[in-house]
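Pasting as-is:
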Amino acid sequence: MTREEDAAESGNGAGLRDPTVAADLVDAAVRAAVVLGKDVADVPVAAIATEAGISRSTLLRRLGGSRAALDAAVRSAGVDPGGQPPVRVRALEATAALISESGLASTTLDAVAARAECSVFSLHAAFGGRDGLMHSVFERYSPIRDFEEFFNHPHDDLHDTVLAFYRVMAQALSREPRVVPALFAETFARPHSPATQSLVGHAGSRMLAVLGSWIESQIGEGKIRGLPVPLLAQQLLAPMVFHVFTRPAAEKSAMPSLPDIDTVCDVFADAFVRAVAVDPQPTTPATPKTSKTRR
């Protein structure tokens, strides 16, 4: 690499001509960024040259010696070239914040792009559209990864497993931004909308894959009665989901007998085991407390 080329690639082409960058080079830079999963600014000049079907030195010559000219042309074309956290990261954080603050229906691609300081085109390039963006937000901000990590470890006693799982649920569902409660609210409010059906289809299959495998193993070992797996999954999830989602409002209304979250987990675990276990062994639920939740 020559000294002139080294300066050019680092964006230090001051004093060099600022050419009008041809559209084919802008397109090549955007394609290379998509292929590599990077912002345009993070794509090596050599990779852009390969995508354009020219040599690296030819690319730099056509750019007038300055990589900065290409980044400026990409920005002018409506694509954020980067230089800050990647568009994908900024978009996920912006979407989660908007969903938590205003709900799913208000979280349009235009709103996300404005909050993430990128273009709508960049969102399409990174996620393939709004559905893809919402699926990615669910993967990152829902408790699905917490559940996968929990069930990746061996568990023996049924009651102890359910109790530990409820504690994981309580912690995961209470995290900010509160994306999952907003997604549930949208599901209840607009169950037939295409956006809701797409998200529920994705989220439901992911959740059932995680819980269903464990439930089926418990049925196979004779610990849980052979009831339909989707219904068992709902019976496992529903009490804690409802409690955690409504708890902030209940605390605001100063419910005098609201137990702390550890007691809630004990009570729900005991109720689930009594309802579905084969010959369940009675357990004594903890005495409800009135102290505030620990999150």
